[in-house]
Write a structure and sequence with these properties.
Shape: globular
Order of helices and strands: HHHHEEEEEEEHE
Structural class: alpha+beta
Number of helices: 5
Largest sheet: 5 strands, mixed
Radius of gyration: 19 Å
Strand content: 15-25%
Length: about 210
């Protein structure tokens, strides 16, 4: 995995090849890549969005994972803008926004259809998500979909000591239990039941795998 991570790292500083000869004119993906992206990492085009989370293959706390966490945080802060033109490329079917939302929470569905949500580098210090069946969708009429009463299950995500420079995950705990360093994901079935997911952040990366 370290060899793959080394190749990935080279991609971020690699020379950009517009490939103008492949088309009659420069297409928008090529323009966006030169304006918004780094090297051969083309975040403006969705097929590359899994790439940063491949660094987590050996777990959430390793030298390899630290490299991925650094690039994830850089992408969140630099390639998305709080303006009308906030996306670095096409917002196809909501995927570009979904990447931002999930990555901001410190989670990502690396392999669609699989149960695990890979652990990343959360952007916010605290996020509370209503995961009840009667949660009201954004833009809805406000009417509940069921007659469920009582306290609604919540997923609470807390990133301790989280700052702009504290992008590296030192440890993660789920409902008070520290996860082994080699754990790279939390299951969907666990998350949907609600609970407390805690990230402990630092400005210091891991130096050993």
């Amino acid at each position: 995995m370290e060899s793959l991570a080394s190749l990935y790292s080279k991609a971020f500083v690699g020379f950009q090849h517009p490939l103008k000869l492949a088309y009659n004119n420069e297409i928008h993906e090529q323009t966006e890549m030169q304006e918004h992206c780094w090297g051969q990492y083309a975040h403006n085009n969705q097929p590359v969005h899994h790439m940063l989370y491949m660094y987590m293959y050996n777990g959430h706390a390793s030298a390899c994972a630290s490299k991925g966490q650094s690039w994830i945080r850089k992408t969140l802060l630099e390639l998305y803008k709080p303006t009308a033109d906030m996306f670095p490329g096409d917002e196809d079917n909501g995927e570009m926004a979904a990447w931002f939302v999930l990555s901001s929470l410190g989670l990502y569905s690396l392999s669609p259809g699989s149960e695990g949500y890979v652990l990343g580098s959360p952007l916010f210090e605290r996020a509370e998500i209503d995961i009840s069946d009667d949660a009201v969708p954004l833009g809805s009429s406000g009417k509940k979909r069921s007659s469920h009463t009582g306290s609604s299950p919540k997923l609470l995500i807390v990133a301790h000591n989280n700052k702009k420079e504290n992008m590296y995950v030192q440890s993660v705990s789920w409902n008070g239990e520290t996860l082994p360093r080699g754990v790279k994901s939390v299951s969907y079935n666990a998350l949907k039941e609600g609970g407390l997911l805690e990230f402990f952040m630092s400005d210091t990366p891991f130096y050993s795998s």
